[in-house]
Fold this sequence. Notes:
The complex is a heterodimer.
Chain A: H1 3-13, H2 22-45, H3 52-74, H4 82-105
Helix pairs in contact in A: 2-3
Chain B: H1 27-53, H2 64-67, H3 70-95, H4 99-129, H5 138-169, H6 178-204
Helix pairs in contact in B: 1-5, 1-6, 3-4, 3-6, 4-5, 5-6
Amino acid sequence: MSTEALAETHEAHAHDGHHPSDLSYIKVAIFLAVVTAIEVFTYFQSVHGWGENTLIVMLTLAMFIKFYTVVGWFMHLRFDSELFTRMFVAGLVLAVGVYLAMLVTFEFF
Amino acid sequence: MADTAVAPSAPQTAASSPAPTNTGISNEKLAMWVFLGSECLLFGGLISTYMLYKNRLPEGEIGPAEVFDIPFTSVSAFVLLMSSLTMVLALSAVQRNDITRSRIWLLTTALLGATFIAGQVYEFTVFYREGLGYTTNLFGSAFYTLTGFHGVHVSIGIAMLMSLYVRSMNGKLTSDHAERVEIVGLYWHFVDIVWIVIFTVVYLFPQ
């Protein structure tokens, strides 16, 4: 299931005060399973000499897509009050900022 | 003063008519989101510590490349991911007041979570037998702390799911109580997204 298809399904449900249908949830789960399969595939391809940086970028992208999909669809942030999003994103941004600073300080990169 | 006394309000007979809040949204749900935001800091700290320490190994010490079994962990990750689907189907069933299906999906979610925990126990046992104890090296300490904390969160989630299941069996979980299922679901999905990050950063990133 492409992100465009997900977006179309979202349009049908967003802001109408209702959560998506069971079928939509199953489609989202299939999409997540496919992304996970791609992630695992890239791991085995690394044996055949893909560049390390390419792999890290691809895996990070896949991770963000899965994270965003679960939070938006299964946790209903796309359909619920914006206040919930603000509360969660505040903690997330703070965590990412603090620990990126820590990793830079300890010369991880 | 007696004139200003407030008459006792009528008893609330159903959870579907909660008291109004200042924000217009559920305080319990808001509290769960604030809690999950704070949990990002806990797991962020554990993941960053792992990233810092994973390669600080003396020559010849056991490290991630020697112990990780990616096919096995991929199956575990898939099991936990699918438990998010069954969780959201349980919520959907409760909202429709389809109590039988909600019980089935709640129990399935708890069983998938238990399968994940069983996989983690097996993985820890194998690693220990291969020579990676909690105090063997910095990688071992950081790895067991991170994945152990996550495992404890999954176990707490299973306990919450089972409490919902027992309430349902006692007839105390109907569509009036859908928000309870939703709040437990938020926790469960959070545990899933934390594993999405751990699976990528700890297991799949090139060692």
